Amino acid sequence: MDSPLVPSLGEIAGELVTLSTSGTLWTNLEVTLTRVLLGFAAAFVVAVVLGIAMGRHTYVRRFLEPAVLLGLVTPGLVKALLCVIWFGISMVNPILAVALAAAPVLIVNITQGVREVDPHLHEMAHVYRFSAWTRLRRIWIPALAPSLFTGARLGIAMSWKVIVLVEIFGLASGVGYQLNLEFANHNVAGVLAWTVAFALVMTGIEYGILQTLERRVSRWRKESSV
């Protein structure tokens, strides 16, 4: 039985086709993806620096741990609202909101990964007088790959949730803004169509990017175990 509250799969598919052919889907997905990637990149750089410092030095960990825990337990809605209040409609708003959402998860995973790195690697780096860049590229990144990818998955998931909220409350473009428009028009099929598109993008990122990169980065582990 047809119902405006429970649209059929055909109606949802029809909405997706309409959004795709009109260009609305691709334009708004591009805007949202750009915001997520910029915010996540900023969070990643900060998290690598702070995560390694917290894993290597106890006093740094004790000093920063309360702030990281606060970032973990603060709801994404609060982060989104604060960024909208502080920065209004600007590019800083979504980028900072995404960074605040992703960084704590990344920092926790990287810190834990650093603490599990073989101490002999540190001794080797000290003996051969590796530069900070060489240590990062040759020791930290390969050793922390599992922690980085775990943190990246969680961080990207958090980023998507926060960016939608920011776009709903304070922006005039993006997937969140379109979801809000469909909600205002009581178009359940439209809301579900955007949700499906959203889920497909997340699936593409997971299987098309993260898992591919993870296999390449982890190839040396398989070769060394043979």
TrEMBL record:
Topology in the lipid bilayer: Multi-pass membrane protein
Subcellular location field: Cell membrane
Transmembrane segments: 36-55, 67-89, 95-114, 162-179, 191-210
GO cellular component, one term: plasma membrane
Lineage of origin: Bacteria, Bacillati, Actinomycetota, Actinomycetes, Mycobacteriales
UniProt keyword terms in alphabetical order: Cell membrane, Membrane, Transmembrane, Transmembrane helix, Transport
CDD domains in UniProt: TM_PBP2 (cd06261)
InterPro entries (alphabetical): MetI-like, MetI-like_sf
Assigned protein family: Belongs to the binding-protein-dependent transport system permease family.
Name recorded for this polypeptide: ABC transporter permease subunit
